[in-house]
Protein: Alkaline phosphatase D
Amino acid sequence: MNKYLLCALALGLQQCHPATVIHEASDRELTIAFGSCNRQDMAQPLWDDIAAQRPDVWIWLGDNIYGDTNDMTVLRQKYDDQLNQPDYRQFRQQVPAIIGTWDDHDYGRNDGNKSYPFKRQSQQAALDFLQEPADSPRRRQEGIYAAYDYAVNTKTVKVLLLDDRYFQDSLYRDAQKVYQPNLSGDLLGEAQWQWLEQQLRTSRADAHIIASGIQFLPQQHAYEKWSNFPAARRRLLRLLAATHAKGVLLISGDRHIGEISRASVPGVPYPVYEVTSSGLTHPSSQNSGEPNDLRVGPLVNEKHYGLFRFREQRGRLLVTAQLKGEYDQVFYSQEIAVKK
Structure:
């Protein structure tokens, strides 16, 4: 098993996050697995398959349980049910680092936003589930955003977990269940925006994984997505250009499908990829296709998880991005050379 070293990392306004992890520098590969949409009361067949990939890190991308309650006792019981799920309990013993953010169902309310009255209590329950230390600044800030650094030989990968629920403005859904864009609305809140900008501007990492519960790039489907908040989406993409962030890879969940999207972002000298992995327990098997002009590869409507394998080769950082299912099935694989 790989050894890990804890170190401090500046968060926001001079906060220090003790849970930042530096992967041992002698390791020449880094494997990060991730997924979302996991019902604690359904069969969970993928944990042994994911463990077989020997991930160094597992990232929860939201809907980690289906809480959907105002009763924090009920919410905590559902988290306990997941922690005690036998396959996941064994998985936790096998994976050196488990980190994550949330989406709406584990936040506490379907499509929940900043108006959810129990968000502070829910935050503590989520951090308990993630086994965040009791003295962590993440427990004192508003929202569960966080940053982690991992080394791959001489290279570094930074993971930035965003909170797109705690500060999210309202969104109107019409009679046809279609979300109408909130043209001036925000997703992150100003404190989180300032934190994200600081993380990107001061980063020396060679690649940056930015995680969100909902999709960043796709714009055509009728469901929750960053493009329902076009001002926030523009701000994020402009921030990537303004901070000259190296090797940005986006990851997201929520949709009960898997797909990889690719976009050209003005001012960013490389294509930006987003890997959506959603459907650990109940994918949308009836969804055999939906418009997404940015999609590369297939739409995956079976149970699956996402996987990054980073490696350094002749001074360059390379990554293989995959969507995988049971019995080592590969639904899609994309080789990416991380650009500086």
